[in-house]
Amino acid sequence: MTRRLLVTGGAGFIGSAVVRHLIADTDCHVLVVDKLTYAGNLESLASVNGNPRYGFVRADIADAAKMRDLFANFQPDAVMHLAAESHVDRSIDGPAEFIQTNVVGTFVLLQQALAHLQKLPSAKAERFRFHHISTDEVFGSLGVDGYFDEETAYKPNSPYSASKAASDHLVRAWHHTYGLPVVVSNCSNNYGPYHFPEKLIPLTILNALEGKPLPVYGKGENVRDWLFVDDHARALVLIAERGRVGHSYNVGASCERSNLSVVRAICALMDELAPDSIGPRERLISFVGDRPGHDLRYAIDARKIRQELDWRPQQTFDTGLRKTVEWYLTNRNWWERIRSTVYRGERLGAGV
Ligand code: NAD
Protein backbone atom coordinates (compact mmCIF):
# COMPACT_ATOMS: atom_id res chain seq x y z
CA MET A 1 0.00 0.00 0.00
CA THR A 2 1.22 3.50 -0.76
CA ARG A 3 2.58 5.22 2.32
CA ARG A 4 2.05 8.86 3.25
CA LEU A 5 5.18 10.42 4.76
CA LEU A 6 5.44 13.75 6.53
CA VAL A 7 9.06 14.91 6.18
CA THR A 8 10.13 17.81 8.39
CA GLY A 9 13.17 19.80 7.25
CA GLY A 10 12.77 18.45 3.72
CA ALA A 11 14.22 21.60 2.15
CA GLY A 12 17.54 21.09 3.96
CA PHE A 13 20.62 19.17 2.89
CA ILE A 14 19.72 15.65 4.08
CA GLY A 15 15.95 16.14 4.00
CA SER A 16 15.98 17.10 0.31
CA ALA A 17 18.10 14.02 -0.49
CA VAL A 18 15.51 11.88 1.34
CA VAL A 19 12.64 13.51 -0.58
CA ARG A 20 14.36 13.15 -3.97
CA HIS A 21 14.99 9.46 -3.16
CA LEU A 22 11.39 8.87 -1.98
CA ILE A 23 9.88 10.42 -5.09
CA ALA A 24 12.32 8.80 -7.54
CA ASP A 25 12.54 5.31 -6.07
CA THR A 26 9.31 4.58 -4.10
CA ASP A 27 5.58 5.14 -4.59
CA CYS A 28 5.22 7.10 -1.31
CA HIS A 29 3.32 10.36 -1.06
CA VAL A 30 5.50 13.00 0.60
CA LEU A 31 4.53 16.21 2.34
CA VAL A 32 7.48 18.42 3.30
CA VAL A 33 7.07 20.84 6.18
CA ASP A 34 9.90 23.33 6.43
CA LYS A 35 10.30 26.82 7.89
CA LEU A 36 12.82 27.76 5.18
CA THR A 37 15.43 29.19 7.51
CA TYR A 38 18.76 30.33 6.00
CA ALA A 39 19.51 26.59 5.51
CA GLY A 40 16.28 25.66 3.74
CA ASN A 41 16.22 25.94 -0.04
CA LEU A 42 13.38 25.02 -2.38
CA GLU A 43 15.87 24.87 -5.26
CA SER A 44 17.11 21.62 -3.71
CA LEU A 45 13.63 20.20 -4.37
CA ALA A 46 13.28 21.54 -7.94
CA SER A 47 13.52 18.02 -9.42
CA VAL A 48 10.42 16.82 -7.52
CA ASN A 49 8.40 20.01 -7.81
CA GLY A 50 5.23 19.31 -9.82
CA ASN A 51 5.22 15.61 -9.02
CA PRO A 52 1.67 14.66 -7.89
CA ARG A 53 3.11 12.64 -4.96
CA TYR A 54 5.00 15.66 -3.55
CA GLY A 55 3.67 18.61 -1.57
CA PHE A 56 5.25 21.45 0.41
CA VAL A 57 4.06 23.54 3.37
CA ARG A 58 6.08 26.37 4.86
CA ALA A 59 5.66 26.19 8.63
CA ASP A 60 7.56 26.14 11.91
CA ILE A 61 7.50 22.73 13.62
CA ALA A 62 7.15 24.55 16.95
CA ASP A 63 3.77 25.98 15.82
CA ALA A 64 1.38 23.50 17.46
CA ALA A 65 -1.78 24.71 15.71
CA LYS A 66 -0.16 24.42 12.28
CA MET A 67 1.23 20.98 13.07
CA ARG A 68 -2.22 19.84 14.27
CA ASP A 69 -3.75 20.98 10.95
CA LEU A 70 -1.00 19.25 8.96
CA PHE A 71 -1.57 15.92 10.69
CA ALA A 72 -5.37 16.25 10.30
CA ASN A 73 -5.23 17.17 6.62
CA PHE A 74 -2.40 14.96 5.40
CA GLN A 75 -3.06 11.89 7.60
CA PRO A 76 0.55 10.61 7.55
CA ASP A 77 1.45 6.94 8.03
CA ALA A 78 4.88 8.03 9.26
CA VAL A 79 6.87 11.12 10.19
CA MET A 80 10.53 11.50 9.24
CA HIS A 81 11.74 14.31 11.48
CA LEU A 82 14.83 16.08 10.11
CA ALA A 83 14.01 19.74 10.79
CA ALA A 84 16.68 21.22 13.02
CA GLU A 85 19.24 23.92 13.48
CA SER A 86 22.26 21.89 12.41
CA HIS A 87 25.50 23.88 12.50
CA VAL A 88 27.72 23.53 15.59
CA ASP A 89 29.45 26.88 14.97
CA ARG A 90 26.12 28.74 14.84
CA SER A 91 25.06 27.00 18.07
CA ILE A 92 28.10 28.53 19.78
CA ASP A 93 27.16 32.04 18.60
CA GLY A 94 23.40 31.73 19.19
CA PRO A 95 22.13 28.67 21.07
CA ALA A 96 18.54 29.94 21.59
CA GLU A 97 17.31 28.89 18.13
CA PHE A 98 18.75 25.42 18.72
CA ILE A 99 16.76 24.99 21.91
CA GLN A 100 13.63 26.38 20.27
CA THR A 101 13.66 24.22 17.13
CA ASN A 102 15.52 21.11 18.20
CA VAL A 103 14.01 20.73 21.67
CA VAL A 104 10.72 22.67 21.73
CA GLY A 105 9.97 21.90 18.07
CA THR A 106 10.52 18.18 18.61
CA PHE A 107 8.31 18.28 21.71
CA VAL A 108 5.50 19.93 19.73
CA LEU A 109 5.78 17.35 16.95
CA LEU A 110 5.76 14.47 19.41
CA GLN A 111 2.58 15.78 21.02
CA GLN A 112 0.86 16.21 17.66
CA ALA A 113 2.03 12.80 16.43
CA LEU A 114 0.65 11.21 19.59
CA ALA A 115 -2.72 12.98 19.25
CA HIS A 116 -2.86 11.82 15.61
CA LEU A 117 -1.94 8.23 16.56
CA GLN A 118 -4.72 8.10 19.14
CA LYS A 119 -7.31 8.90 16.46
CA LEU A 120 -6.13 6.21 14.02
CA PRO A 121 -7.94 2.89 13.58
CA SER A 122 -5.91 0.09 15.15
CA ALA A 123 -4.53 -1.36 11.88
CA LYS A 124 -3.18 2.05 10.89
CA ALA A 125 -1.98 2.85 14.41
CA GLU A 126 0.05 -0.37 14.42
CA ARG A 127 1.94 0.71 11.31
CA PHE A 128 2.45 4.36 12.32
CA ARG A 129 6.07 5.40 12.90
CA PHE A 130 7.83 8.51 14.21
CA HIS A 131 11.40 8.44 12.88
CA HIS A 132 13.67 10.92 14.62
CA ILE A 133 16.87 11.74 12.74
CA SER A 134 19.79 12.55 15.00
CA THR A 135 23.54 12.76 15.08
CA ASP A 136 26.51 10.83 16.47
CA GLU A 137 27.59 14.08 18.15
CA VAL A 138 25.23 13.25 21.06
CA PHE A 139 27.82 10.66 22.17
CA GLY A 140 30.54 13.26 22.72
CA SER A 141 34.14 12.79 21.69
CA LEU A 142 36.20 9.63 21.17
CA GLY A 143 39.92 9.34 21.82
CA VAL A 144 42.21 7.83 19.21
CA ASP A 145 40.40 4.48 19.29
CA GLY A 146 36.92 3.04 19.91
CA TYR A 147 33.59 3.48 18.14
CA PHE A 148 30.08 4.72 18.93
CA ASP A 149 27.49 1.95 18.96
CA GLU A 150 23.81 2.02 19.93
CA GLU A 151 24.67 1.41 23.61
CA THR A 152 27.18 4.26 23.92
CA ALA A 153 26.30 6.70 26.73
CA TYR A 154 25.26 10.24 25.79
CA LYS A 155 27.87 12.95 26.51
CA PRO A 156 27.06 15.93 24.27
CA ASN A 157 29.60 18.76 24.33
CA SER A 158 28.27 21.57 22.11
CA PRO A 159 24.99 23.50 22.34
CA TYR A 160 24.01 21.78 19.06
CA SER A 161 24.72 18.25 20.26
CA ALA A 162 23.11 18.97 23.66
CA SER A 163 19.93 20.13 21.92
CA LYS A 164 19.90 17.01 19.72
CA ALA A 165 20.55 14.79 22.75
CA ALA A 166 17.63 16.47 24.52
CA SER A 167 15.38 15.75 21.55
CA ASP A 168 16.53 12.10 21.41
CA HIS A 169 15.62 11.76 25.08
CA LEU A 170 12.16 13.28 24.51
CA VAL A 171 11.56 10.83 21.65
CA ARG A 172 12.61 7.91 23.84
CA ALA A 173 10.34 9.11 26.68
CA TRP A 174 7.31 9.53 24.38
CA HIS A 175 7.78 5.89 23.36
CA HIS A 176 8.36 4.58 26.86
CA THR A 177 5.64 6.62 28.57
CA TYR A 178 2.94 7.08 25.92
CA GLY A 179 3.64 4.18 23.56
CA LEU A 180 4.43 6.35 20.53
CA PRO A 181 6.03 3.97 17.98
CA VAL A 182 9.39 5.68 17.47
CA VAL A 183 12.66 4.78 15.83
CA VAL A 184 15.82 6.89 16.14
CA SER A 185 18.92 7.08 13.96
CA ASN A 186 22.28 8.65 14.85
CA CYS A 187 24.45 9.42 11.90
CA SER A 188 27.99 10.61 11.31
CA ASN A 189 28.98 13.65 9.21
CA ASN A 190 27.29 13.79 5.82
CA TYR A 191 28.63 15.38 2.65
CA GLY A 192 27.46 15.59 -0.94
CA PRO A 193 25.46 17.78 -3.35
CA TYR A 194 23.19 20.59 -2.03
CA HIS A 195 25.25 20.98 1.18
CA PHE A 196 25.00 24.51 2.58
CA PRO A 197 28.44 26.12 2.05
CA GLU A 198 29.09 26.91 5.72
CA LYS A 199 30.18 23.30 6.32
CA LEU A 200 33.79 22.14 5.83
CA ILE A 201 33.55 20.30 2.51
CA PRO A 202 31.45 22.71 0.40
CA LEU A 203 33.17 25.75 1.96
CA THR A 204 36.57 24.34 1.01
CA ILE A 205 35.46 23.50 -2.55
CA LEU A 206 34.05 26.96 -3.19
CA ASN A 207 36.91 28.86 -1.53
CA ALA A 208 39.39 26.76 -3.54
CA LEU A 209 37.51 27.58 -6.73
CA GLU A 210 37.63 31.31 -5.91
CA GLY A 211 41.29 31.28 -4.77
CA LYS A 212 40.34 32.22 -1.19
CA PRO A 213 42.00 30.91 2.02
CA LEU A 214 40.93 27.41 3.07
CA PRO A 215 40.37 27.67 6.84
CA VAL A 216 41.37 24.62 8.91
CA TYR A 217 40.49 24.73 12.62
CA GLY A 218 43.41 24.16 15.03
CA LYS A 219 45.92 21.74 13.52
CA GLY A 220 43.33 19.96 11.39
CA GLU A 221 43.67 16.80 13.48
CA ASN A 222 40.00 16.38 14.37
CA VAL A 223 38.58 13.22 12.80
CA ARG A 224 35.10 12.73 11.35
CA ASP A 225 33.54 9.59 9.84
CA TRP A 226 32.21 10.78 6.47
CA LEU A 227 29.01 9.48 4.83
CA PHE A 228 27.76 10.37 1.35
CA VAL A 229 24.31 11.95 1.72
CA ASP A 230 22.51 9.67 -0.75
CA ASP A 231 23.77 6.62 1.18
CA HIS A 232 22.31 8.21 4.31
CA ALA A 233 19.00 8.91 2.55
CA ARG A 234 18.67 5.21 1.60
CA ALA A 235 19.49 4.21 5.17
CA LEU A 236 16.85 6.57 6.57
CA VAL A 237 14.09 5.23 4.34
CA LEU A 238 15.00 1.66 5.35
CA ILE A 239 14.95 2.62 9.03
CA ALA A 240 11.58 4.37 8.69
CA GLU A 241 10.13 1.30 6.94
CA ARG A 242 11.76 -1.59 8.75
CA GLY A 243 13.52 -0.29 11.87
CA ARG A 244 12.40 -1.93 15.11
CA VAL A 245 10.10 0.21 17.24
CA GLY A 246 11.88 1.70 20.24
CA HIS A 247 15.32 1.00 18.73
CA SER A 248 18.06 3.28 17.52
CA TYR A 249 20.39 2.71 14.58
CA ASN A 250 23.83 4.20 14.07
CA VAL A 251 24.65 5.06 10.47
CA GLY A 252 28.17 5.49 9.13
CA ALA A 253 30.36 4.34 6.26
CA SER A 254 33.68 3.73 8.09
CA CYS A 255 35.35 6.62 6.28
CA GLU A 256 37.38 8.30 9.02
CA ARG A 257 39.44 11.25 7.87
CA SER A 258 41.17 14.12 9.68
CA ASN A 259 39.94 17.56 8.64
CA LEU A 260 43.35 18.34 7.17
CA SER A 261 43.31 15.22 5.00
CA VAL A 262 39.80 16.11 3.78
CA VAL A 263 40.97 19.59 2.78
CA ARG A 264 44.04 18.15 1.03
CA ALA A 265 41.90 15.63 -0.87
CA ILE A 266 39.65 18.47 -2.07
CA CYS A 267 42.72 20.47 -3.17
CA ALA A 268 43.94 17.51 -5.24
CA LEU A 269 40.53 17.05 -6.89
CA MET A 270 40.21 20.77 -7.62
CA ASP A 271 43.71 20.85 -9.14
CA GLU A 272 42.65 18.00 -11.42
CA LEU A 273 39.10 19.14 -12.32
CA ALA A 274 39.50 22.94 -12.28
CA PRO A 275 43.24 23.72 -12.50
CA ASP A 276 44.43 27.09 -11.20
CA SER A 277 47.20 28.74 -13.25
CA ILE A 278 48.71 30.27 -10.09
CA GLY A 279 49.53 26.85 -8.62
CA PRO A 280 48.35 23.94 -6.44
CA ARG A 281 45.43 24.71 -4.10
CA GLU A 282 47.28 23.47 -1.00
CA ARG A 283 48.99 26.89 -0.95
CA LEU A 284 45.62 28.30 0.22
CA ILE A 285 45.40 26.18 3.39
CA SER A 286 45.19 28.51 6.39
CA PHE A 287 45.24 27.25 9.99
CA VAL A 288 42.87 29.30 12.16
CA GLY A 289 41.95 29.31 15.86
CA ASP A 290 40.19 26.13 16.93
CA ARG A 291 36.44 25.80 17.58
CA PRO A 292 35.80 26.12 21.37
CA GLY A 293 35.20 22.65 22.83
CA HIS A 294 36.01 20.98 19.49
CA ASP A 295 35.36 17.21 19.76
CA LEU A 296 38.47 15.27 18.69
CA ARG A 297 37.02 12.25 16.95
CA TYR A 298 33.73 10.63 15.94
CA ALA A 299 33.55 7.10 14.50
CA ILE A 300 30.54 4.85 14.00
CA ASP A 301 30.08 1.13 14.53
CA ALA A 302 27.35 0.48 11.92
CA ARG A 303 27.04 -3.29 12.38
CA LYS A 304 23.42 -3.12 13.56
CA ILE A 305 22.00 -1.41 10.47
CA ARG A 306 24.20 -3.56 8.21
CA GLN A 307 23.03 -6.80 9.82
CA GLU A 308 19.37 -6.02 10.52
CA LEU A 309 18.47 -3.92 7.50
CA ASP A 310 21.12 -5.09 5.04
CA TRP A 311 22.20 -1.51 4.36
CA ARG A 312 25.56 -0.85 2.69
CA PRO A 313 27.04 2.48 1.58
CA GLN A 314 27.52 2.64 -2.18
CA GLN A 315 30.20 5.35 -2.13
CA THR A 316 33.70 5.24 -0.75
CA PHE A 317 35.08 8.57 0.47
CA ASP A 318 37.05 8.91 -2.79
CA THR A 319 34.10 8.29 -5.13
CA GLY A 320 31.70 10.37 -3.01
CA LEU A 321 34.10 13.31 -2.75
CA ARG A 322 34.72 13.29 -6.52
CA LYS A 323 30.94 13.31 -7.17
CA THR A 324 30.58 16.18 -4.71
CA VAL A 325 33.32 18.34 -6.25
CA GLU A 326 31.94 17.66 -9.73
CA TRP A 327 28.44 18.65 -8.55
CA TYR A 328 29.60 22.02 -7.19
CA LEU A 329 31.55 22.70 -10.38
CA THR A 330 28.48 22.08 -12.56
CA ASN A 331 25.77 23.58 -10.33
CA ARG A 332 26.89 27.18 -9.86
CA ASN A 333 23.29 28.40 -9.96
CA TRP A 334 22.51 26.56 -6.76
CA TRP A 335 25.34 28.04 -4.67
CA GLU A 336 26.07 31.42 -6.27
CA ARG A 337 22.96 33.04 -4.79
CA ILE A 338 23.78 31.64 -1.33
CA ARG A 339 27.41 32.78 -1.51
CA SER A 340 26.46 36.28 -2.61
CA THR A 341 23.58 36.85 -0.17
CA VAL A 342 22.87 34.36 2.65
CA TYR A 343 26.40 33.35 3.67
CA ARG A 344 29.65 34.76 2.29
CA GLY A 345 32.04 32.42 4.08
CA GLU A 346 32.77 34.47 7.22
CA ARG A 347 34.09 32.70 10.35
CA LEU A 348 31.35 31.49 12.69
CA GLY A 349 31.51 30.14 16.24
CA ALA A 350 34.97 31.38 17.17
CA GLY A 351 33.69 32.05 20.70
CA VAL A 352 34.32 35.12 22.80
P1 NAD B 1 20.07 21.56 7.32
O1 NAD B 1 20.46 22.66 8.24
O2 NAD B 1 20.66 21.49 5.97
O3 NAD B 1 18.49 21.55 7.13
C1 NAD B 1 17.59 21.75 8.18
C2 NAD B 1 16.23 22.09 7.58
O4 NAD B 1 15.31 22.28 8.67
C3 NAD B 1 16.23 23.37 6.77
O5 NAD B 1 15.54 23.17 5.55
C4 NAD B 1 15.50 24.36 7.65
O6 NAD B 1 14.78 25.35 6.92
C5 NAD B 1 14.56 23.45 8.43
N1 NAD B 1 14.15 24.01 9.71
C6 NAD B 1 14.93 24.58 10.66
N2 NAD B 1 14.20 24.99 11.69
C7 NAD B 1 12.91 24.66 11.42
C8 NAD B 1 11.69 24.82 12.11
N3 NAD B 1 11.62 25.42 13.31
N4 NAD B 1 10.55 24.37 11.53
C9 NAD B 1 10.60 23.77 10.31
N5 NAD B 1 11.72 23.61 9.60
C10 NAD B 1 12.87 24.04 10.15
O7 NAD B 1 20.36 20.22 8.14
P2 NAD B 1 20.80 18.78 7.59
O8 NAD B 1 22.28 18.74 7.52
O9 NAD B 1 20.00 18.43 6.41
O10 NAD B 1 20.38 17.88 8.83
C11 NAD B 1 19.08 17.28 8.89
C12 NAD B 1 18.95 16.51 10.18
O11 NAD B 1 19.95 15.50 10.24
C13 NAD B 1 19.13 17.36 11.43
O12 NAD B 1 18.20 16.92 12.40
C14 NAD B 1 20.54 17.08 11.89
O13 NAD B 1 20.67 17.22 13.28
C15 NAD B 1 20.71 15.64 11.44
N6 NAD B 1 22.08 15.22 11.13
C16 NAD B 1 22.86 15.93 10.26
C17 NAD B 1 24.14 15.49 9.93
C18 NAD B 1 25.01 16.23 8.94
O14 NAD B 1 26.17 15.85 8.75
N7 NAD B 1 24.52 17.25 8.24
C19 NAD B 1 24.64 14.33 10.50
C20 NAD B 1 23.82 13.61 11.39
C21 NAD B 1 22.55 14.07 11.67
How would you describe this structure to a colleague?
- The chain is built from 12 helices and 13 strands.
- It has 352 residues and is an alpha/beta fold.
- The chain has a domain at 4-195 and 226-255 and 296-315: 3-Layer(aba) Sandwich (Rossmann fold), CATH 3.40.50.720.
- It is globular and about 65 Å long.
- Nicotinamide-adenine-dinucleotide binds at residues 8-9, 11-15, 34-37, 39-40, 60-62, 82-86, 101, 105, 133-135, 164, 187, 189-190, 196.
Q: Could you describe the largest sheet, including whether it forms a barrel?
A: 7 strands, parallel
Q: Span between N and C termini?
A: 54 Å
Helix content: 40-55%
Over the alpha carbons, how many angstroms does the gyration radius reach?
A: 20 Å
Q: The CATH topology of the domain at 4-195 and 226-255 and 296-315 is what?
A: Rossmann fold
Strand content: 15-25%
Quick check: average pLDDT?
96
Bound molecules: nicotinamide-adenine-dinucleotide
Descriptive terms for the model:
alpha/beta; Rossmann fold; 352 residues; two-stranded parallel ribbon; binds nicotinamide-adenine-dinucleotide; 43% helix; seven-stranded parallel β-sheet; 12 helices; 16% strand; single chain
